[in-house]
Amino acid sequence: MTLPAADHADRATARLEWARRASGATSLQLHRASMDAGFRSYWRGASNDGSPTAASVIVMDSPPDREDVRPWLRIREVLERGGVRVPRVLAQDVDAGFLLLEDLGAETYLHVIDTDNADALLDDAVSQLLKLQAIACPADLPSYDEALLARELHLFDQWYLGHHLGLTLDPADRQTLERVYRHLIDAALAQPRVLVHRDFMPRNLMPAAAGPAVLDFQDAVRGPIAYDPISLFKDAFLSWPEPRVAAWLARYHARASEAGLPVPELARFRRDADLMGVQRHLKIIGIFARLRHRDAKPKYLADVPRFIGYLDAVLPRYPELAALAELIDRHVRPALAADA
Which of 51, 105, 211, 232 is most buried when burial is the number of CB atoms within 10 A of its CB? Predict the structure, then answer.
């Protein structure tokens, strides 16, 4: 889903004019900094006059008819009050969908993390996560309830199996998926509930003073405590060996227990994280297919094998999920092999 060229040009003009007014730099030029999987885009300010202010700002462009910026601002305030490092807002025009933000640099954790520094970087990320999870959820914060969990799971069969692979599941396969979905939903709903970011992963963390700074938090909900840790350690865009993930989960669990967060005992938490991961992996596979077929963003599908790998590592531990493994073997693995 893309804007017509004329709309793009009009939006670009409005964005630049607003940024120059908001920053006070009349020679400001904007250059693409990044674009997320939604409709927001980010632009770095640079000025021909060498103004240090102009050279250190980011414009978030969130077209109001496509992605309202108000949820982002609201959750940013909640997180900041709770001590979480988030980007500072220097100016805003909510009706137009423009924000002027501090420039945190060009590199996220995804750019800088490697085998040698991962322990330290992820420990710092957990420090921010513990602050986030300790925040009392606003009374009107949406809940990660049964309906939302089910909608997310059905992205897998609707968009990946259906739209992408072109499959029409027979009644037996549909019943299999519904039983698996029911098990995953029940497991998620049984977990202790905290503030959940929903995409707490290296791409949404930036090295920063008193950080890392946390990004892309506008979809926060009240939900299962294992969701954000498994999102951090089983990332959408890079993978780690299972023993290392297990050690990080144990380290998170120890720190969360020490911080007074409502984590269950370690064996139960590991199971919760595994099953929560399966729900997230299926959801993301579906989202990547939707990005390809609805939003004309095909690049994300290249990471589907990563999530199949995550499922391969976990499903054999749980006999109740054996039918899902068999369905993947029959329907998904041959398609991936054909694309390889």
Answer: 232
